[in-house]
Amino acid sequence: MNIYNLPCTMYKFYLSLHQNFLRTMATELKDLTKRSDDYSKWYNELVVKADLAEQSDVRGCMVIKPYGYAIWEKMQQNLDRMFKETGVQNAYFPLLIPKSFLSREAEHVEGFAKECAVVTHYRLKTNDTHDGVVVDPAARLEEELIIRPTSETIIWNTYKNWINSYRDLPILCNQWCNVMRWEMRTRLFLRTSEFLWQEGHTAHATREEAEDRAKMMLKVYADFAERYMAVPVIQGVKSETERFAGALDTYTIEAMMQDGKALQSGTSHFLGQNFGRAFDVTFLNRDNKPEYAWATSWGVSTRLMGALIMTHSDDNGLVLPPALAPLQVVIIPIGKNDQMSMLDEKADVIVNNLRAMGISVKYDNADNKRPGFKFADYELKGVPVRLVLGARDLEHGMVEIMRRDTLEKQNLPVEGIEEYIKQLLNDIQQNIYQKAVAFRDAHIYECDNYDEFKERIKDGGFFLCHWDGTAETEAKIKEDTQATIRCVPYAFEQTPGIDMVSGKPSVARVLIARAY
Amino acid sequence: MNIYNLPCTMYKFYLSLHQNFLRTMATELKDLTKRSDDYSKWYNELVVKADLAEQSDVRGCMVIKPYGYAIWEKMQQNLDRMFKETGVQNAYFPLLIPKSFLSREAEHVEGFAKECAVVTHYRLKTNDTHDGVVVDPAARLEEELIIRPTSETIIWNTYKNWINSYRDLPILCNQWCNVMRWEMRTRLFLRTSEFLWQEGHTAHATREEAEDRAKMMLKVYADFAERYMAVPVIQGVKSETERFAGALDTYTIEAMMQDGKALQSGTSHFLGQNFGRAFDVTFLNRDNKPEYAWATSWGVSTRLMGALIMTHSDDNGLVLPPALAPLQVVIIPIGKNDQMSMLDEKADVIVNNLRAMGISVKYDNADNKRPGFKFADYELKGVPVRLVLGARDLEHGMVEIMRRDTLEKQNLPVEGIEEYIKQLLNDIQQNIYQKAVAFRDAHIYECDNYDEFKERIKDGGFFLCHWDGTAETEAKIKEDTQATIRCVPYAFEQTPGIDMVSGKPSVARVLIARAY
Q1: ipTM confidence score
Q2: Residue B508, strand partner residues
Q3: B94, A62 Cβ separation under 8 angstroms
Q4: If both were cysteines, with which of A51, A136, A209, A335 could A123 make a disulfide (CB 3.0 to 4.6 Å apart)?
Q5: What's the predicted TM-score (pTM) here?
Q6: CA distance A144 to A148
């Protein structure tokens, strides 16, 4: 039987059977655990199978593969532009920090200095048996160097030389770099010993300006998360316990994953004069009096990749927002050998039109992979729109278009398909955002009863509860339920109430959740 | 005397006196050593005074300041695009490399393993007196980790899992990252313990394809150097002695600095099957037989910043090629207070027009710095074009335009100045390239007499000399003169001759120079 000689409807029916068969095959190839079976395993598998990242042979350090890195690059490009629009400039500071710097800011060292990679020597030598290398004991450093876990210390040590007068302020620097915090239990993107991030470090002449900057950068993060990642976030301020080491205030954006857990996705810190004082960074203010400089720092990391993956993806694989998808549209031809040149020609026109509209597109006419395999692979990789150019469909001026977010297929006229795709990409971006908002909003609860809270927190979700403001209550909640106070949310009308744990008065509800 | 009431020509004369006075003041501010007095000191001062970079308190590690980093970003953007146009994708591999990896490729360890930062511990703890931190002796790593001096080992250890069949090849990965090679004597950008670079690592099914890739990437580097940096380079292949550790062939681009010394500006290595063998990376070839994968690696680093600075700059400061200048045009107003709003308005139009043409421009109407100070500062920073909006000039529809490369000034009608600027930026780009070519060509000599060579090499320059191909001769030249064989140049018609040192037959002339 030559399926291409069948009437159009039968051909399509056959094709759909055939595609289902191929999809089954390909699905086995990808063999992804279902979210409902094991959310955590689903995530771990997805990251690897979708070619985003993998564990390296170096404990706790990941390899970010080209497809994963391409998403990260799109995040970087957009964030970088958004930072620059607020006057921030990029710079680069040393990877290694003298050990003594870490103890300069007392609170900071408590929070950070413990688990980090320590460089003690600067030379290897050939071993006695001449088949390997050993550390040269003669090449011991006088003072050990730490691989930066974050760069406040080395940067404020540098700013000291840059700042003399209020005229030198503000300084608005950012760096894109790698950092290292030794982690015992690691998960790709979510918690790795080495990760990539950006860290902004600003110095200001007044407290107010620094506080405004810290809040401004949180706003940039929230905008980025919502507009580009399509991840709704709750903005708020951390409790004292959860603050960054050395900060007077830590602002945070918290996103809800599909298992109802919170993922802290970005933080911005108002550091007061702590680092100015620790590194003796003074300036002459407008009254010609010396004053310590005011500081902020703020960062997002490759952890955002985890937020992106866990917010939208499904049991078929990744679902990527068009704004960050390395590839927005894939076109796959289906036809006999002698039809391929016609299909190639047609595809060429569509590809050029889409590219001219700024849409990234790949025409995959590789003949060593079957269409069903390609379908499953691009689904797994979350390409937002798939166009199937079927030879028979095209004879009738039609193409099949599938949107990855809903997996809905449509047959549409090929004429004008480019405009349709442009609109569809916008729709997908909006739809996955709205879907995430709806999911999140359906899993936010006000709760005033601690027993009820303890029961319901097991199923995940964000809880808005009254809190008496004490670290003791906070610790008890964490001990009883593993949940933590994620933040005091900004955009929430607050009324006083009673702490659900202690029964003491509370001025505001806080957001409590189990978190990554 | 109010100069604004003087007749136009007198006003200009006065203004020019005044500007000269201000320039003298500002020149003292910048106080740059002359190239002819001490080229090396001139370079060191320029890097710091032009706000490109500075030494950090961490031995051998630099801080790249925002202005310097902005140039590096422009280099990255263009190189990155050029790499991607050849099919390369970005990825990220771990910073730390297990010590044992380094001894896997025997030649590689000889060349690299010795001077590097060694991580031996992963935790600090508070000291006994509770006023600092010490390394926790309990947290000693079983196997020491090395901060990557280059990533062939960790990457080929990863590729092992990516490659099974010729269908998985080629793999064309690049990473932008930091690397570390412990250096005893460092110079900003030219030789620092930590530096930023890109390293491409490709794997291929055939020797030919790998060799072609290595040569292709050298071509990309040469194109970038010449078209963007306006730095002419000589492409060639290294002698065995000067090859990368583990390479079968190292291709190089060599640029001539204004002191006649060579700066190796980029290298591309054909690695044969050395890393495939060392890390057991085999694939089934088209005949279904296992074969070791063929490799290349190639890199350029922040050293390019050194090449850029030293090729074009002069005693007044940086001269930047418009293609890489963070700021291509600066507009400075000169007028009385009541004229400023008119000047601001006029500037606004020009700024918008230039931006619409894709030209980066800054209007500097800051009133806390005098025009002369601004002039000197933008000269120091190498901004290619300066426009002075003088209130009086503008009344006659004229502006003053200065090109940084020649310091030539012209008075031109403000009408149509944008088009003129666009053309001028192209002219500057071409002019500084041609100037560098002319300088380089005037300092390349054929030389067949060793005594003459030894005398003339003292003044710098590139020497094309016959070489018998032995490491002994190479070593003797180096010992006698500190000069090294930079490469066997590609684009040079070769005729056999006699080695100037040994008197033995030679098949080709090589390029010999003292080098950075």
Answers
A1: 0.93
A2: B467
A3: yes
A4: A136
A5: 0.93
A6: 12
